[in-house]
Write a structure and sequence with these properties.
Number of strands: 0
Structural class: mainly alpha
Order of helices and strands: HHH
Helix content: over 70%
Shape: rod-shaped
Strand content: under 5%
Largest sheet: none
Length: 123
């Protein structure tokens, strides 16, 4: 009887000592799950906002290029012919831009090329 009382006392003591470790592990798992969920939500929100900004920027460039292309269609001198070719190039770059593929490796590089071409057209 004394052995079983000592064993029960020992088990209770082990449970108390191990409770801190068990609670720490459970808290870690809960925190990790909550953090992962919040991270996904925040990432989705940031991606949507950033994507919308890029889309708006690209749309502005396309509107600019198409408008000037239409305005310069009637002019046939050599100076305007060069401008039309440059506008065609900008429009082509915009049309080839991968809107549907956010994992495209050269997304930022292509965006910088479009920005540079747009700046070239504005001068």
């Amino acid at each position: 009887m004394a052995a079983s009382a000592a064993s029960a006392s020992s088990d209770m003591f082990d449970e108390i000592v191990m409770a801190e470790e068990r609670f720490h592990g459970e808290g870690y798992q809960e925190g990790y799950a909550e953090g992962s969920h919040v991270g996904v939500v925040e990432g989705r929100r940031y991606g949507s906002l950033h994507g919308a900004r890029i889309g708006s920027e690209i749309g502005c460039y396309l509107g600019f290029a198409l408008t000037w292309q239409c305005l310069l269609q009637k002019c046939t001198d050599e100076k305007n012919s060069k401008k039309i070719k440059a506008l065609d190039s900008l429009i082509g770059m915009i049309q080839k831009f991968p809107y549907e593929d956010p994992t495209y490796d050269k997304l930022q590089e292509d965006l910088e090329k479009i920005r540079g071409k747009f700046k070239q057209e504005c001068v």
